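Because discrete structure vocabularies remain unfamiliar, we turn briefly to a single example record, giving the amino acid sequence and backbone structure tokens:
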Amino acid sequence: MSFIWPQALLLLVLVPLGVALYRAIGRRRLAAVRQALGPGARTPLSGAGGLRNRIPPTFMLLGLIVLTVALARPQGTIDAPRQEGTVILAFDVSGSMAATDVQPSRLAAAQKAAERFVEREPSTVVIGVVAFSDSGVAAQAPTDDQATVLAAIKRLSPQKGTSVGRGIQAALQAITAAQSRPANDYYSNRSPSPTPSPTPVPPGTHGPAVVVLMSDGENNESPDPSAAAQQAADRGIRVYTVGLGTTAGTTLDLGGFKVHTQLEEDALKAIARTTGGSYFSAADSQDLASVYDHLDTQLVVKPQAIELTAVFAAAAAALMVLGALASLAWLGRLP
């Protein structure tokens, strides 16, 4: 047990002084009673009655000691289970995401489902947003501020080509930044030390972090998505892929050009399989919302400090009330 204001414990030195003062007053009271009753008279503090009469002040003394400890604001530690982790929402914002084979559009449906997911997550889960078209951009660094994450999701809009590989790489970089300690020598002009290559681990073993990649799977930019997926697998980070659209597809009008776009499931399934994640087909917004029910960020048990002031104060009050009631019942007065 620790204390927030340990200085208050110095007040305990007054307890012996209070006991000595109480006993001095008791002796004077006893002397006065004996003088009034005469020599050889039986006083109220003799025998069993005397022991009973000492119980009320003992309760009051214990109450004062416990109350003094409460003033120091004691703290205890409990092992509290809680869900925590880092979730990166990686959105395909290529031009094909404007297709309406998922209503109201592929991207709009993904945004709506992601917003509902963010709103129901506990503050111990930090969420980041990555947008990728022909490049990968971290639209929002991982944070537990839900309002900031929701605003980043709402800002997304269809752009140009598609680089699924860069989207995965940007998500991995966001996870690294979120789980790394602040760098030392922030204001130093020394060249940074080269970052060592992480030792590969079994796929899916890095529990505290997951990536949810939402795309129609039509990749037309480097790098190779399978290579980026292997990078995630080597770090043990699962990538849940969500296929947006239909295999039949639809035709888009992009600046006067008619382009047919359809869901490419095989590439998304391969990414999920490589990283130990899962693939989900979202033909509509309801299916997309159910995807998030399958995410499993890590449930951990961590020591958590809790303040015990109220407990000690309640115990002190109970002891003092017991002492007062006993004194009134046995002595007809307060101690």
In short: The radius of gyration is 35 Å.
